[in-house]
Structures are given as structure tokens and as C-alpha cells.
Amino acid sequence: MNHLAQPFNVGFGVRVGGTLTYSVEHTFQDIYQVGVSAVAFRHSDVSLKTANLDGNYAFPVFAIRLNVGTVAVSGTAILHVIQAGL
Fold first, then answer.
1. Cβ–Cβ contacts within 10 Å for residue 39, how many?
2. N or C: which end of the chain has fewer CB within 10 A?
3. DSSP designation for 40
4. Domain for residue 16, yes or no?
């Protein structure tokens, strides 16, 4: 993400196929810095979900990821992210 964008506006959606559990997570640490082990935080509204869902970030974060927790039989999850701001 461009954490310096003003205003910082990020929308995202997760599309699920099959049976699985996922969370959207973010970090405030520079993931490109050598030797950094970034701490991930779960999005408060998109944690341990099983169906298609959308959400947003209105305040700066450095990176966003999709964390698939469990897959019952088979499944896919795709995270779509759009950022606005200059």
C-alpha cells in the first residue's frame, strides 16, 4: 500500500469458492526492510469468515494480506484491493 497517500482510502473484497475460513490482516511495519519480522493484525470486521465479504481501511497501513486458516475439503479465496488518494 502507499501508506503516504492523502487521503488514505482502501477498499477490498474477498471472493470465496468452496469451504474455507479466512481473515484479512494488516501491518504497520515496513515489510521491505531487511531483518523486519512484521506483526500482523486482523481486520476487526473480516476475521475468521467463510463467505464473500468486503471492507475498507480509512487509516494508513503498510501492507494487507489474506490469511487462509482452514480448508475443509477444497476451496479458493481471492483478495481484490483498490487504493485511492494521491
1. 9
2. C
3. P
4. yes
